[in-house]
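Practice problem 4.
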């Protein structure tokens, strides 16, 4: 999560209900995405992932549960490693 709209640069939840973009980091999951034919943007990021791909990766129920709990849309991005994920603006959420 970056705390800003990627489209407008507006701060989180200003003038709209923002979504959560969550980075999932791990070489195995990243390679599973590649094996499904997903392209890595800049060679470092896959996503956002949509229903059919989330289902194939076993993440659809998790995404739906998180969205329900958060009361807003949730999107997942896949990264092979933390270094790649940290190249983008982010907020750490334990």
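Answer key:
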């Amino acid at each position: 999560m970056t705390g800003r709209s990627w489209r407008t640069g507006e701060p989180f939840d200003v003038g709209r209900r923002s979504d959560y973009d969550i980075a999932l980091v791990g070489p195995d999951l990243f390679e599973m995405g590649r094996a499904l034919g997903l392209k890595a943007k800049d060679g470092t990021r896959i996503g956002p992932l949509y229903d059919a791909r989330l289902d194939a990766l076993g993440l659809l129920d998790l995404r739906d549960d998180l969205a329900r709990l958060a009361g807003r849309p949730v999107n997942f991005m896949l990264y092979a490693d933390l270094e790649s994920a940290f190249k983008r603006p982010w907020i750490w959420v334990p």
